[in-house]
Amino acid sequence: MLKPREAAPEMSFPTVDGGTWTLSERKPENLSMVVAYRGLHCPVCRGYLKELNDRADEFAERGVELVAVSTDGEERARAAKADWELPNLAIGYDLGIDDARRMGLYISTSRGKTSIGIEEPAKFNEPGLYLVKPDGTLYSAFIQTTPFARPKFEEILKAIDFINANNYPARGEA
After folding, report:
1. I want to staple 89 with a disulfide (CB 3.0 to 4.6 A). Which of 39, 53, 115, 131 is the partner?
2. pLDDT, averaged across the chain
3. Structural domain span for residue 26
4. Is 126 part of any domain?
5. With bands split at pLDDT 50, 70 and 90, how would you rate the model's confidence at 151?
6. Is residue 108 in some structural domain?
């Protein structure tokens, strides 16, 4: 079980822009925000990541480094970045199923093509959003079993403002 104030699970994966994104190597001013999305087949993910892309500057102004990742392979991740128009967002790929489980993510199996006509992978992760402090400890996690009802970025931004202004500690550690 993930616990705030404890080390977040190691996260390391390639990105479509080149290189490897590794949590333990990140040194954001305030937080790293990792958004696990379901993959290219998910129309809800498309809208969610598009909104995040459009608000990337607001997160950067607050010292938050962003990355989105899924269990999709490189080709599908590249298609998501291009087709969904995500120039401001680092997109990772090849998150292993075991790694996704260590992150506390739920895993689903394919039900065929989605409403947008794209085949689901045999297995893929469900959504999650993690805020991780520069020292690698988990600040908070939002983990879902379905693609619906995700944390709103407007609320996350307000929470980050409150956290930064009040040095508010991570909660739920007991």
Report:
1. 53
2. 97
3. 12-148
4. yes
5. very high
6. yes
Q: Quick check: is 120 in a domain?
A: yes
Across the range 112-130, mean pLDDT stands at: 96
- The CATH number of the domain holding residue 139 is 3.40.30.10
pTM: 0.97
104 found inside a domain: yes
Domain count, the chain: 1
Half-sphere exposure of 126 (CA within 13 A, CB side): 15
User: If we measure between CA atoms, which residue out of 137, 133, 138 comes closest to residue 63?
Assistant: 133
For 129, the enclosing helix (H) or strand (E) is: strand 128-132
CA distance linking residue 81 with residue 169, whole number of Å: 34
Residue 165 confidence class, pLDDT cut points 50, 70, 90: very high
As a three-state string, the secondary structure of 25-78 is HCCCCCEEEEEECCCCCCHHHHHHHHHHHHCHHHHHHCCEEEEEECCCCHHHHH
Rounded CA Rg of the chain: 15
